[in-house]
Write a sequence for this structure.
């Protein structure tokens, strides 16, 4: 049991960090891509569903960040950490829900 705990305690932070980095990169890339499409719409008069695509990218990034927080629950050692982690998970889930709610009206109009 101790060996398994030691393996989990050493491997899990790396997995969490990887998911965090993927989430950050996804949000960053979505923002850059969204800005480029905004530039094309504004100055090159192209048509593109900017809001929906940007919201989908942000939602995907938040899903990766939420996955890392869920894995982090395994490493919680105190009740204070659990409360803080629960608040972060709740906040990220709420943001994800709001973004999905924002995407929904755009899907019906396509």
């Amino acid at each position: 049991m101790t060996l398994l705990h030691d393996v989990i305690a050493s491997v899990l932070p790396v997995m969490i960090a990887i998911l965090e980095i993927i989430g950050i990169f996804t949000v960053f890339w979505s923002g850059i891509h969204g800005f480029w499409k905004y530039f094309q719409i504004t100055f090159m008069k192209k048509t593109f569903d900017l809001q929906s695509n940007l919201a989908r990218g942000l939602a995907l990034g938040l899903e990766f960040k939420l996955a890392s927080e869920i894995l982090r629950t395994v490493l919680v050692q105190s009740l204070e950490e659990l409360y803080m982690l629960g608040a972060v998970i709740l906040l990220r889930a709420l943001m994800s829900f709001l973004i999905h709610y924002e995407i929904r009206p755009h899907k019906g109009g396509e």
Observations:
- The chain is about 85% helix and 0% strand.
- The mean pLDDT is 87.
